[in-house]
């Protein structure tokens, strides 16, 4: 019997040693991220914390606290990550807005408008600050904390699983002990009941010994099993207590590590905010200085400093009748009649204006209505003089500002480009870049060096003398506008027979005096050196084709 009990004790101790090795192996397998998940986190575990929570009834409370804090840390990391993303997106949006504002205000010349440039610079600085803050949150706080939180979450899960398995074994061992106890009680009760029956039955004692021996062996066996199961339970309890102590120490280390890293992250955030302080102060100081300049600027000073990119002028539209256009084919008598009727109409209108005393009702530096009608009359008179072959003996002050072009319908249009400001040397027609078009009258277009060349671009018209007269000039001035040097002599290379009254006959070898050009195809003038014929006493002027003469021959000037 003693040998049997020692064998059972040895088997129980062997099972305990095997369980201890299994526990250590399980501990190493669940803590592969850290060789010692429970002891390496701190050198001196908190004994008070172990006494409080290193029990099966209170361990889950401490585990839930650590798990809750880990989940809160994960949520904090997610919030900071979202904040970092928002800062990055906000920085990009601010940069775009600043670029749009810079594009709008880059050509601003007013100090008030330049104030918005300061706002754009503020947007850029704010965008840079948010970009730096986003990078700091992501690199210095979010990523380190996320790595720590993931490791801590795994460690907490491993500790919890390890403790749960150990508590499950302890529960199973308690169940084994309870079952062994119940069997021991049952065997002892059966034996005691048999003994009591044998004590009362004195007549039949021979039938009890075999049964008594059987029950005694069963009771001893069950009691031995109950005792050894209790010893194994105590060993399991002690081992569970050690596991709980180590688990509490590990969870304590996890929580200490979380708090330490949280403090480090908060310190980094605090230092980043301290670094942003001077940048914000500099930004607001610079913005305030620039805005003060814009706020205290004078709008009237800016408006007075404005000037156009070209000389301001008024374009006065003149009349251009069909009879005035010598480029159009028209019988001379009908042209003379039409021009005479138009001159009479304008003369009558002038007489009516003189009677109404409209001469003084004008601005001092611009053309008056009376002067406008006077110039129309002068223009028609010049056409009549050219038609009759007479040289112009008078000039009008507005000749300097006359310009000829064509309208959208291709019809000739004469305008007066009158400068609005004093001291302007020239006036250029705004918005026009095409070459000048043929003149509609044989009077004001000078002859170019080559008959086949087109006119130059719209010539700049000098307004010298426009503002020099203190009073308006009426009618015309006896100052010839066409000098003799403006006339050009050309050699005729082909014979030309006139087809209508406006054309003149020219012959090869003759010299012609060109008074003016009628577009690129016709010239207006007269023959000065006839060959084999005599000219009439009063020579008639007319037009002839440009292609029938040559400018490359030697020419003379009258």
From TrEMBL:
InterPro entries: AH/BAR_dom_sf (IPR027267), F_BAR_dom (IPR031160), FCH_dom (IPR001060), SH3-like_dom_sf (IPR036028), SH3_domain (IPR001452)
Keywords tagged on the record: Coiled coil, Cytoplasm, Cytoskeleton, Phosphoprotein, SH3 domain
Pfam families: SH3_1 (PF00018)
Matching CDD domains: SH3
Region called Disordered, residue ranges: 196-219, 429-449
Domain named SH3: residues: 485-554
Subcellular location: Cytoplasm, Cytoskeleton
Record domain F-BAR: where: 47-299
GO cellular component, one term: cytoplasm
Record's protein name: SH3 domain-containing protein
Organism field: Pristionchus fissidentatus
